[in-house]
Amino acid sequence: MRTSIVRRLLLALLLCAPLAGWAADPQVLTWEELIPPDAPPVKPVTQPLHDLSKMGDALAMEAAPAAHQLAPDAPVVKALDGKQVRLPGYIVPLEVSEEGRVTEFLLVPYFGACIHVPPPPANQIVHVTSELGVKVDELYQPYWIEGPMQAKHSSSELAEAGYQMEADKIYVYELSDS
């Protein structure tokens, strides 16, 4: 009798194991899904703030006008709070470790946001932290970021973010990943 109880328990565990693995898969998000359906539309400004041909000239870069963020208080999708998600985007470094790994950054939907063009609305910026960090060789390289999403405002010297995330995984984005 004891053997049949043990067998039933093992069978139940085996049947539940695939469901547990399935539930752990992150929800793949698009940037549009970070905007509530009833939010007023905000058109991003993608024109450079300064003459990119003078990027080597530090004084010219310092003299560039400050970027004014569009909709720094843009509404977020509260239903995403606590969800395990996977989102592609571009990394704007905020903190770099002594080993040269980016451990805190803003994830944005297009290259140059917050650096060469005004920051997008807050609901189009995710403030990400990572214990291990990621070695970023090229800022124009997009990455996948996976981890628990928080619909929580944060502020940095570059922009207001409507979301926060502690990255579980950071890896190079490739078209076949989507």
Oligomeric nature of the chains: single chain
Assign the CATH class.
Answer: Mainly Beta
Number of helices, counting only DSSP H or I runs of 4 residues or more: 2
Strand order of the largest sheet: 2-3-4-8-5
How many beta-strand segments? 9
The overall pLDDT average reads 82
Q: Report how far the terminal alpha carbons are from each other.
A: 50 Å
CATH topology: OB fold (Dihydrolipoamide Acetyltransferase, E2P)
Note the beta-strand portion: 25-35%
What is the 3D form? globular
Largest sheet: 5 strands, mixed, barrel
Radius of gyration: 21 Å
Assign the structural class, choosing from mainly alpha, mainly beta, alpha/beta, alpha+beta, or little secondary structure. Answer: alpha+beta
Low-confidence stretches: 16-21, 58-65
Number of domains: 1
Q: How would you spell out the order of helices and strands? A: HEHEEEEEEEE
**Percent range for helical residues?**
10-25%
**CATH architecture classification name:** Beta Barrel
CATH superfamily: Protein of unknown function (DUF3299)
Short overview:
The protein has 178 residues and is α+β, with helices and mostly antiparallel strands. The protein has two helices and nine strands. It has one domain (26-177): OB fold (Dihydrolipoamide Acetyltransferase, E2P) (Beta Barrel), CATH 2.40.50.
